[in-house]
Structure formats: structure tokens, C-alpha cells
Design goal:
Elements (H helix, E strand, L loop, with lengths): L5 H15 L6 H8 L7 H9 L4 E5 L2 E3 L9 E4 L1
Antiparallel strand pairs: 1-2, 1-3
Helix pairs in contact: 1-2, 1-3
Protein name: S-adenosylmethionine tRNA ribosyltransferase
Pfam family, one: DUF3253
Length: about 80
């Protein structure tokens, strides 16, 4: 996972959010954009997303904390 900084992860999350324009996306899309071996990166994607004031995480339409939510979540711009 060389070169996977929080800044790079945040940039990918924000780029995907901008591309979706009002729609949400799965955090795995960000992880897949960062590396072929994406599964180990998922906790980092959730952690970084939790620290971005302009990004929200939802589960079944309700806003959740991406660090504590269990199961699938979606990310989007606030």
C-alpha cells in the first residue's frame, strides 16, 4: 500500500463524490480506485471519510458514523 496517504484517500473520496453529483457511492469504489488489493484499505477509507466535514456516510438512508457503523454504508457530499 505504498503511497496511500490520508490526503490521497481523501482526494479519491471527494472526486468520487463530485462525480456522483447528489448520489452516494460505496466506499469500496474509493478503495478500488486506490489499489488492486482494495479490501485491506477499507478501514482506512472509512476512517478518512469520518474525518471529512464535507462527506457524509449513510446506511439505509440514515446518517451514520463510518467508524462505528456495521455493514454496508454509502458516502456522499453533504
Amino acid at each position: 500500500m505504498d503511497g496511500l496517504t490520508d490526503a490521497r484517500i481523501a482526494a479519491v473520496i471527494r472526486t468520487l463524490a463530485d462525480q456522483r453529483a447528489g448520489r452516494s457511492f460505496c466506499p469500496s469504489e474509493a478503495a478500488r480506485a486506490l489499489t488492486d488489493d482494495w479490501r485491506p484499505v477499507m478501514p482506512d477509507v472509512r476512517r478518512v471519510a469520518a474525518g471529512l466535514a464535507d462527506i457524509k456516510a449513510t446506511q439505509k438512508g440514515q446518517e451514520v458514523d463510518p467508524l462505528t457503523a456495521r455493514g454496508p454504508i454509502r458516502l456522499a457530499r453533504r
